[in-house]
Amino acid sequence: MSARGRDPDRYRSNVGLALFHHNGLVFLGKRRGAAPPYQWQMPQGGIDRGESPQAAALRELEEEIGVPPSLVDIIEETPDWLYYDFPPEIRGGAGPKGRWLGQKQKWFALRFHGRDADVQLDKHTPEFSDWRWGTLEETPRLVIPFKRAIYEDVARRFRRHAGGAQAPTDEGSGGTP
Measuring CA to CA, which residue among 62, 155, 63, 64 is closest to residue 109? Predict the structure, then answer.
């Protein structure tokens, strides 16, 4: 969703990462503690003060899934910020969540040159309990509904990087596609 009608200062700066396997499938992480059916998403995370979106993308990739920058190429970055609003139950309350209406995200398409064994969910503070390769087109229906419009936009923008990938037959963790 675009910035139209939004005050950018009320949205937390964030990056989203579409990590593409050489066969066109995309990394999907199972959110720790999330309830089915909306427990899968692509990695994302905040941009630190003074940090560029690209630097944040590479840092978040390593923090969330243990993949170092040396194992990826950035193949595309969205030129604009994509926005989503938090639902009222997340938006309210004390602390940092209370200051933000939602998030504005720069999305990056990255090509993974590593092996499945290079994905290490426990390298930093674990955010995902499991992972798998999936199709980019399936991501909007797997993510929590308030992020769905961004995932639809990202799937449309980055579909050329998927290269006609088909869904894997094995839903197991980190299996070779």
Answer: 155
